[in-house]
DUF4224 domain-containing protein (Neopusillimonas maritima), 72 residues
Amino acid sequence: MSAYLTPPELEDLTGYKIKSAVLRWLDRHKWPYVVGGADGWPRVLRQYRDQRLLGMNNNTVRRKAEPNWTKP
């Protein structure tokens, strides 16, 4: 299995079959991708898709609470 989503998987994710529409959807929803290969389809990491659909991304990582030393 490839590390990247296949064009049919991207179609399932976005609901679009046309490559330009898939790219537009990825941009609007702020999904990282690269365009590579001779086919020109975007490459989205399978691991990123899994984490994003599970609600896990860099913004949801909780940091340990630290004391506020600025209060008197």
Summary: DSSP finds three helices and two strands in the chain. The radius of gyration is 17 Å. Residues 7-56 form one domain. Strands lie at 34-35, 42-43.
